[in-house]
Amino acid sequence: MTTPTPAPDLIAGALPGYEIGAELGRGGFGAVYAARHRLMGRAVAIKVLLDPGAAAGPDPFDGSGGSGGDLRTRFLAEARVLAELDHPHIVRVYDYVEHAGLCLLVMEQLTGGTLRTRIASTPPSRAGSAWTPSDQLARPGNLDPRSSCAIGLTAATALAAAHRIGVLHRDIKPDNLLFGADGMPRVADFGIAKIVESSTVTTTGLLGTPRYMAPEQIEGTRLGPGTDLYALGVVLYELLCGRPVFGRGLTVPALLHHHLSIPPDPMPEVPAPLAAVVLAALAKNPADRPASAHDLALMLAAGATAVFGPGWLAAAGIPARLPDDVLTAAGHRLGDLLPGMTPGWAPPGVSPTLAGPTTTPPYPMHTPRPGGPSPTDPPPGPPLTPTRVAPTPHGRRRRRPRRRGLLIGAGVTLVVVLLAVGLVVGLTAGGGGDAKPGYAGQQLTLDRGTFFDALALRRDGTVYVAVSDSGVGTGAVYEVTASGTVRAVAGVGPAPASSPTTTRTTTATTPPATTSPPPVPAAGVPAAQLVLNEVHGLAVAPDGTVYAADHAADQVYRIAPDGRAFVFAGTARGGGGFTADAGLATRAALDGPAAAALGPDGSVYVAEGSRIRKITKDGLISTVAGAYGRSSTTVIGDGGPATKASLPSPSGLAVTADGSIYVADDYLDTIREITPDGTIRTVAGTSGKDGETGDGGPAARALLSGPTGLALGPDGSLYITDTHNAKIRRIDPKGVMTTFAGTDSGVSTGLDGTSAGEAALTGLYGVVVDPSGAVYATLNQVGTLLRIDPANHIVRTLLAPPEK
């Protein structure tokens, strides 16, 4: 059926303040006209819904579907949605009018055409110009791949803004990605957008365009942000490969079948870092796609930086207004101008700020808590000049003064609320009802091994401890089961003694001393052959998978339950890699990983350099706190986004069930919290002051000195290894700081069998607490794993090297 065209004078009657111009285009149920406001002179586009009554019986595959009344409802919904979305990469709406059977939407006029027309008009000489010569895309119609990635970033950040207010687009495709006269991309046509209000959000009829439909959209099941990410993944695939995801010439039923059941065609012509991002977005299961549009933007930015190098975003020639963390992931120096920007430039509706190191992203992934950074926060300073420090007991110079590592036992929840009177810790124990106590028997012995480092606790009561000797490559990870069996889990280092209480299930020889461990192939190596040096962070999953953060190797290893070890994150020391905020974890350059913790979704959090990184189960890395290369002698960033905060020496981590992250910093002598919305605050210690005072008062006013390990007790108390004070400090559920173990005088009659308050705890390192309330800790320099009984507070040595 031919849709009638309304006379311009009918439109003018509805909008007397506008001069109506020529028709710009039309779709199945609407037309778009050029217009100009008579008084302001602003050029606009008027989208007109034509004769809703003529909409009966549409083709179910044309992406429109529904009755005339439904169309009007959707058209009005589009107006309301766009009115809420004030974002530089989303088309703006100025007015909505109903008049004489017409529904009119007055919106921003975009004269730069659609992405589809831009693809079609791109001369062959530009195709693939940013690939290496051997990988060039020589097919006509392809945009420069840097431009394609930049367009993808703008679309992803626009979708992130929509998703934050509960809006799904549901029809992302090249026709709905438009360009303004300035060349800036905009996401348009929210005409079938759906407000995400409840768990019953599903498709009603086949809405969308089959070529770009996600499997759940075809099946009519629950939709979510991943639905839009899938469609954007299809667009990126077409841009980077120059061909459809599933080949050409498929019928609509065949195309839908491919979306549901057939993997996308491989992308051999696209470099692996970019191909991995696109294919992740095209996962059939929404849960396997990036967690959010913002995460997709970070991954895409980092992948492009890995391929093209720093400066690619400016070279792409696409005006883009992106959050600071995305700009950083794209290798862009904050504060430099991108195409289309001049000093003080900002799109309409956005304050004219430059994305400098102290500027809050104009469209953050998480809405900061009210108030933002305190006006009393000191301004950011230049990075600290590295200082000369004494060698560690391992013989390797620490990268920062007093830097130490950490193990955090996963699976317990801490709720921290800052009140005027101090810190209150919620009484939320974790680990579930099936968690079991750890070993509490007689002392066990290792036949060699001088230094005990990180600790971890599994739900079944197994304690994991990282051990090393004075030689290079002699590190190892051991487990001590609840029944008292010691077993080597990984590494070629010290072996358990051949006593009735120990077993040895792996054999290996100590490698020759080298400055770097041998590379681990993608297929992995037997865990007994994994060369470890200084494991400063351990985390263990419920299935027994162990994650070991090797501070000296700049890598994190995954030790599978079947006994094979793999590189989980980081390139080998001196092996290059990117330093951007997101991308493939195995391509990331890590700076002395010092702590590891397991998140509630199975992701692994790692403290490295001056940042906290999150690594998903599928191997993608992003930054959740700290700015690369930014350091300070004082706390900077409290009350604002964690990604802008200073973290000069993060030494310990804990992640709660709700996603809150706690960070010990042994340089600032503080414990800080990163809330699920991305805000950071200090919850214990005083920046710039080290000491041991404050017992009996609020934790936020207490002094710490070199905090390293963190653990949560069954009553919700927080335990801290206050390393330089040789104490274990405790914050009770009321927020009061006390000393749990260690002597004030520094004089002790011994260790084994002494009261916790009289114990000499020199070299405190890791700490975990089992469900019974027993506290386990390592003494690094004397090579000891100890247990403090929850009933009588007596210290017992559980594991030690032979006496010298």
From TrEMBL:
Pfam families, alphabetized: Pkinase (PF00069), TEN_NHL (PF25021)
InterPro entries: 6-blade_b-propeller_TolB-like (IPR011042), Kinase-like_dom_sf (IPR011009), Prot_kinase_dom (IPR000719), Protein_kinase_ATP_BS (IPR017441), Ser/Thr_kinase_AS (IPR008271), TEN_NHL (IPR056822)
Record's compositionally biased regions (Pro residues): 359-385
Biased composition (Low complexity): 493-513
GO molecular function: ATP binding; protein serine/threonine kinase activity
Keywords: ATP-binding, Kinase, Membrane, Nucleotide-binding, Serine/threonine-protein kinase, Transferase, Transmembrane, Transmembrane helix
Domain (Protein kinase): residue spans on this chain: 18-308
Name of this chain's protein: Serine/threonine protein kinase
